[in-house]
Write a structure and sequence with these properties.
- The mean pLDDT is 95.
- The strands form 3 sheets. Strands 2-1-3-12-11-4-5-10-8-9 form a 10-stranded mixed beta sheet, sandwiched between helices.
- The protein has 2 domains: 219 residues, 3-Layer(aba) Sandwich (Isopropylmalate Dehydrogenase), CATH 3.40.718; 129 residues, Isopropylmalate Dehydrogenase (3-Layer(aba) Sandwich).
- The protein is of the alpha/beta class and 370 residues long.
- The two termini are 21 Å apart.
- It has 12 helices and 14 strands.
- It is globular, with a radius of gyration of 21 Å.
- Strand 11 and strand 12 form a beta hairpin.
- Helix 6 packs across helix 7, helix 10 packs antiparallel against helix 11 and helix 11 crosses helix 12.
- The structure holds nicotinamide-adenine-dinucleotide.
- The site of nicotinamide-adenine-dinucleotide has 20 residues, from loops.
């Protein structure tokens, strides 16, 4: 079987602790299931700055470019708060996103039944929630030019950010959303502000046209992004896939994330365009949380976000759908048994550390894969 090449970038803080639990799963899949994952490992963030004076070295960038998928832990911490801006830890992640041209950010918001009571919403509103927010990641107002602050000379300054989208950028993110929907409940809700923004008008037109041309089997709905925010906290289960731009996606995905409880539970994927020859997309998988310096090195971090990110990698980079389903089911089963890290601890549950949580999920995954 051809090798499945994974490049691991554990990073700083709790990144390496969480990644170690994924490494155990990979080792078992290789040993028991002949999965043929070939892993290599590099440095990113503060640890890369300490070693090379850059947030990621050119050599590690080249490995990331060549891999089938990159697994990323977390970067940053107080030790590097004062390093020059261009080499700050986050610059490593930004370079990866830019050089790999990862334009589609996938943020699932899944509420495990066992954690429904941990949500800020009523349990019946979130129990069984399973939505996927697809955020455009490389365009829009965060990158548009001009982006300036000008001194007007009269005691006033003027700040300008530019929201800009071209047709092809909207077409390709809409395509990802429709394709993902086909593997789920076949329904897409596109969110923009066409009532007050020209980019919203174009977004709406291009999504509608893309749907008509190639994906008319998928149900499509449009919603103004502010109304979408309201609906997300009023009745989140009405959604399957939500597709939106960089700015609205940044906010709406954080809102959706919090419906499901702790930061330690949330995975994400960032995908690029399919390669013209191989059809493979460049991809990076990472937990939503940061390096959690307050708990790093204590062995208490929740590894679920990292493990669930690996499940996304199995699904989207390697089409290992059964394995991804089993790994996600293993996480749900472990939670059902009342096994919890500190961040998701509940009365009557058993409190465990990072390694025990990883072991419990692996054991459950092995049982489900038998
Ligand atoms: P954070 O996500 O690291 O932590 C926020 C809180 O959530 C902390 O109390 C932390 O202990 C807790 N937490 C996070 N992940 C957890 C897990 N897996 N298990 C248990 N508890 C968990 O955010 P922050 O404190 O704002 O940032 C800390 C550092 O991480 C900063 O240097 C920041 O720049 C960086 N950061 C990196 C990324 C990334 O690598 N993608 C993302 C966000 C923040």
């Amino acid at each position: 079987m051809t090798a499945r090449n994974l490049f691991l970038l554990p990073g700083d803080g709790i990144g390496p602790e969480a990644m170690a639990e994924v490494r155990k799963i990979i080792a078992w899949m290789n040993e028991a299931k002949g999965a043929n994952f070939v892993t290599d490992e590099g440095l990113v963030g503060g640890c890369a700055y300490d070693a090379h004076g850059a947030a990621i070295s050119d050599a590690d960038m080249a490995k990331a470019m060549a891999a089938d998928a990159v697994l990323f832990g977390a970067v940053g911490g107080p030790k590097w708060d004062a390093v020059p801006y261009e080499v700050r830890p986050e610059a490593g992640l930004l370079r990866l996103r830019k050089d790999l041209e990862l334009f589609a950010n996938l943020r699932p918001a899944i509420c495990y039944p066992a954690l429904a009571s941990a949500s800020s919403l009523k349990p019946e509103l979130v129990e069984g929630l399973d939505i996927l927010i697809i955020r455009e990641l490389t365009g829009g107002v965060y990158f548009g030019e001009p982006k300036t602050i000008t001194d007007l000379g009269n005691g006033q300054k003027r700040a300008i950010d530019t929201q800009v989208y071209d047709t092809y950028e909207i077409e390709r993110i809409a395509g990802v959303a429709f394709e993902m929907a086909r593997t789920r409940k076949n329904s897409v809700c596109s969110m923009e502000k066409r009532n007050v923004m020209k980019s919203g008008v174009l977004w709406n037109q291009v999504v509608t046209q893309t749907h008509k041309d190639k994906y008319s089997d998928v149900k499509l709905e449009h919603m103004l992004a502010d109304a979408g925010g309201m609906q997300l906290v009023r009745a989140p289960k009405q959604f399957d896939v939500i597709v939106t731009d960089n700015l609205f996606g940044d906010m709406l995905s954080d809102v959706a994330a919090m419906l499901t409880g702790s930061l330690g539970m949330l995975p994400s994927a960032s995908l690029g365009a399919p390669d013209a020859k191989t059809g493979k997309r460049k991809a990076l998988y990472e937990p939503v949380h940061g390096s959690a310096p307050d708990i790093a090195g204590k062995g208490i971090a929740n590894p679920i976000a990292m493990i669930a990110s690996f499940a996304m990698c199995l699904r989207y980079s390697f089409n290992m759908v059964t394995e991804a389903d089993n790994l996600e089911k293993a996480i749900a089963n472990v939670l059902d048994k009342g096994i919890r890290t500190g961040d998701i601890m509940a009365e009557g549950a058993t409190r465990v550390g990072t390694v025990e949580m990883g072991d419990a999920i692996l054991a459950e995954f092995q049982a489900l894969s038998a």
